[in-house]
Amino acid sequence: MTGIFACVCTRAFPTKAAATGLKKLTGAGRVELVKDLCSAEGMATLAAKVREHGIDRIVLAGCPVIGRTGQAASVAEAAGIPAPHVTTVLLSKNADPAGTAPAIRKAVVALEAMPGFETRKLKLAQDVLVIGAGPAGLEAARALATLGHRVTVIDRSASVPAADGLKVLPGTRVVAFDGVAGAYRAKLRGPFGTVERTFGAVVAATGVKFADPVSAPFVPGRVVPMPGLLDRLAGLRLRELPRLLAIVLDLEIDEGKASNAEAFRIALEATRTRRTSVTLFVRDAKVASFDHNAAYDAAREAGVAVLKYTGVPAIRAGDGEIAITARDSVTGADVRLSCDLVALSPYGLPSPADAGLAGVLGLDLDALSHFQSNSSRLLPAATNRRGVYVAGACRGETWLPAVLRDARAAALEAHAFLAPRRMSVDTAHAVVDGDKCALCLTCVRTCPFKAMGIHAADRRADCRPEACRQCGICAGECPNKAITLPAWSDPIVLGLAEPVRRAPAAAGSRWGRA
Q1: Of 44, 280, 361, 491, which sits 20 to 30 A from 237 (CA to CA)?
Q2: Burial class (CB in 10 A: 0-12, 13-18, 19+), 12
Q3: Which CATH architecture has domain 127-208+352-418?
Q4: In the chain, pLDDT over 70 holds for what percent of residues?
């Protein structure tokens, strides 16, 4: 039986009286009015009504908040019914039942046209693998351990300091990775040999690979990396100190707060203690915090010149000088500066994450070769693989406060996924017609969630229900139309897309006159 649960908060139907008559208007088997569908009390009321009346398909009618909070998935989990059997109809404020009934009716028809799906529960392993023993990795590992998970931290470096309360394996990397969320099988290779372990979730918190400091655009001794510049200056005699120093940010990639803060600090220190004239080249100084703004002001007051530029500066190291030519973003004119030393921020150059590790884990890379596609649905820590999370420099974040924040977010997301100890999997996943499948592997290549594979015995493509998110990419890309989503067959989709037919206006009304 299909049930409608209509929210009667102030943002949807204003009163219970206003929502009366929905059962007759929509043809649903049952209509229940919930005081506040987004509250814990409303959820408990809904789940109780579902069990009491044997409701197996649900339409949630409420304000847009229920769409943003993922209420449909939460309701399906709480009510113990397959996720496709719950849909939402978003209402405007103080909705009119007669006006919204056609849209609700369409949702009811679509749900009743769906085949029945079964739901099964899979056990989730509580062990978590953290890859990377830097600030992000250790912060995530500590948070996960505090939340009660067994955590294993690995790092490629052989010289990783011990961390209290954590199992850290130095000189270890992932060489193979398979399975599904909640039961990933990772093959780890290190000084102890090769072992295979099962993990419920994974947090990738590795770093990035910076440009070689002795190859272009660096020039040894003349165009040098910004990190370590103060140590370099401290080792020079007074007559060897540069009179004119340029610090260049954002050479090829717009940088974040981390390198801006470091540039302000270095420029201020070089000006005050080394009596060096410093010019900072930057596309747009990042000062969107009190600390950053104070550091920027201190550098300017100490005499640091700031040139905001557009385009790409030209840096040429000739005999006796290093010339920088950049276009002033204010005047639009080219500015040429001759200096003795240039400090170039490596964060403004391409700094890819470990593509090999991304390939092993099956993670998508963004345009800058960082882990995690730039999708609002994935931020801050989720990836295209359920149960695999990212934090730190490998996803493009280098400012330490934000790195630690991301690490804690990744730990909380992993904990939220594993805490129920069971995961619901329904049979609404992609279905392959073996008679039509040509085994061209298009679905295997295009599925971002690694849900499509090969059924060896039948020589056809196959779907892993545990990994399938029912996005429809495989069905849309299959050249032979061999893949379908049972919950979204053509009749269902076309029925939902059909324009809502409004009742004709009464004769003599403003819209009913000839």
Answers
A1: 280
A2: buried
A3: 3-Layer(bba) Sandwich (3.50)
A4: 95
Q: Can you read off the two tokens belonging to residue 69?
A: 């909070």
Tell me the average pLDDT of the chain.
88
Confidence band for 112, pLDDT divided at 50, 70 and 90: confident
**Which residue, chain included where needed, has tokens 């069990």?**
51
**Tokens encoding 378:** 């994935």
Q: How confident is the model at residue 488 (pLDDT cuts 50, 70, 90)?
A: confident
Give CA–CA dist 341/227, Å, rounded: 14
Q: How far apart are CA 166 and CA 176, in angstroms?
A: 23
DSSP 21-53: THHHHH--SEEEEES-TTSHHHHHHHHHHHHHH
In degrees and rounded to multiples of 5, residue 152 shows phi and psi of -115, 125
Q: What is the pLDDT of residue 475?
A: 92
Would you place residue 507 in the very low, low, confident or very high pLDDT band (cuts 50, 70, 90)?
Answer: very low
- What is the CATH number that goes with domain 429-484? 3.30.70.20
**In angstroms, rounded to a whole number, what is the distance separating the alpha carbons of residues 291 and 346?**
23
Q: Which burial class, exposed, middle or buried, applies to 378 when counting CB atoms under 10 A from its CB (0-12, 13-18, 19+)?
A: middle
As a whole number of angstroms, the distance between CA 39 and CA 216 comes to 58
Give the distance from CA 459 to its chain's centroid.
35
What's the pLDDT score for residue 119? 84
Following DSSP, what letter does each residue of 281-322 receive, concatenated? EESS----SHHHHHHHHHHHHTT-EEEEEEEEEEEEE-SS-E
DSSP 179: E
Domain ranges of the chain: 2-119, 127-208+352-418, 223-348, 429-484
pLDDT digits (tens, 9 = 90+) for 213-223: 999 999 999 99
Q: Could you say which architecture CATH assigns to the domain 223-348? A: 3-Layer(bba) Sandwich (3.50)
Place of tokens 């809502």: 500
pLDDT of the residue at 505: 43
Q: What average pLDDT does this structure show over 230-255?
A: 92
**CA–CA separation, 429 vs 453, rounded Å?**
13
Which span out of 6-10, 54-58, 68-72 was modeled with the highest average pLDDT?
A: 54-58
The residue type at 491: P
The answer to whether the 223-348 and 429-484 domains have the same CATH topology is no
The architecture of the domain spanning 2-119 is: 3-Layer(aba) Sandwich (3.40)
CA 169 to CA 158: how far, in whole Å? 9
CB 117 within 8 A of CB 85: yes
- Whole-angstrom distance, CA of residue 391 vs CA of residue 406: 5
